[in-house]
Amino acid sequence: MVDDEGNQLGVVNVSEGIQKAIEKGLDLVEVAPNVDPPVCRIMDYSKFKYEQKKKQKQAKKKQHVTHMKEIRFKPQIEDHDYQVKLSHIREFLEAKDKVRISLRFRGRENAHKELGRVLLNKIAADMSALGEMDGSPQSMGRTMTMTLVPKSETQG
Fold first, then answer.
1. What pTM was estimated for this model as a whole?
2. Looking at the predicted structure, is the pLDDT value of residue 146 above 70?
């Protein structure tokens, strides 16, 4: 047991610990239940709960949730449109989000899927500094997709 000033009181009976907490006008809080014997501390329980909540919020702020963003291309894309979409992909990868690039074939474009594969490989090459392909481009019906994942800090 630890008192409100941080002094070790040693192993104390539960009823004795509660009695000491009541004398000081505080609560007996179990802070480490998994050790043998469990560690209890004399403190204000509401203040303890508040500090625990504050620690959890800080830990949550430091986490980053990876989102999946999608950018759609057509096989016949003009250079300016290509550069604009590339800048969006760059923003997503810098924010540590995954990017799915989908290429939709319409009409006679379906006969020239190799042009789509060339375009996807060009995108992967242009973004190689920030991200890398997660597998090879996959074709499903009229669409071809590729996923770019951000490079981790340890590599770059």
1. 0.56
2. yes
Its domain, for residue 25, covers: 14-60
- Dist. CA 121–CA 45, nearest whole Å: 59
**Mean local confidence (pLDDT), 92-113:** 87
Nearest to 71 by CA among 102, 94, 95, 106: 102
- Count the domains in the chain: 2
Q: How many CB atoms lie within 10 A of CB 148?
A: 25
Q: Which CATH number belongs to the domain containing residue 84 in this structure? A: 3.30.110.10
Does 50 share its domain with 89?
no
d(CA 40, CA 1): 5
Specify whether 90 is located in the same domain as 140: yes
Tens digits of residue pLDDT in 112-142: 888 888 888 898 898 888 888 887 888 888 8
User: For the chain, where are the E strands, in sequence order?
Assistant: 27-32, 39-43, 68-73, 98-104, 131-133, 138-140, 143-150
